User: Fold this.
Amino acid sequence: MLDTLSGDLFQKLKVFHYILQYGSIGKAAAVIHRSPSSVSRQIQQLEEELGITLLLRSTGGAVPTQEGRQLYTHTLELFHDLEALLTSVSASKKEERLSGVVRIIAAPVAVDCLLPCILHQAARLYPEIRLEVTASSGIRLAMKAISAHDYHFTLSAQDDFVVPMDFQPVLTTTTCLISPPGYPLPENLAEEPRLLESLPMVGMPESMALSRFVKKHCDALGIRLNVIHLAPALRFQVAMVRAGLGVALVDRDHLAATGEGGIDILPMPAFPPRVFGLIQRHNAFQPPHVRAIMNLILSHSKEPIPVSV
Assistant:
């Protein structure tokens, strides 16, 4: 069996993997800088060599057959095993040679709380890796950008996406109520969240993940908030509270990262914790320099994923 293996077969398997990852022959061809006809021809040759049909082609893209899905699963394992093998035989300092661009789209909480923690370490370990970070105005935009391969991964809240993607947790946050210093809050407000209805609220647009999170759980509790002002971001929301325009429900960790002076803070245990983490396309095969940055982000809570050079 080993005598029949060749670099040509490996290339065909790689092409097949890219087609399934990107959803069409045309998109895969653009990524690997080949013509669609060349990519299609390689898949036809692979199908002939294996004696099976791997893809059902249509104008909308390429859909794998059952055999195609099985082959994709096996090739994914093969590529990961190969990467792990290369890692095990690499020199200990060789990781420093990694270079390239890592494109991240992240929720504001992640931009302020998660990413700053890795910047110095990333600059020291991987000086040739360039980070391009975009703050997402909403999870739907982030998911669309990841699905379109405009970004390598996103850092967002687990409770706010429904598409089938891979999620790895990094940070758990809690909700608190902020108010102007000395503001007369109702007694037992933390234990009786329905009392929030009596307070003038400074909210944020529904496109913001925390706003949807708060609304979801208020609806579940039968609470209707009295939102009288809207702020575009946390910093301005806090400024409005400091100015005495109302109170606000905010993310505790995000608040700590952006500054909490001049306000009173009350934990709100009635709202469940939120889990933020790294979200990427299902079974995405990321380049080594991308996985290196992913490892830095995940190192606080997860075993590192293999990185090769």
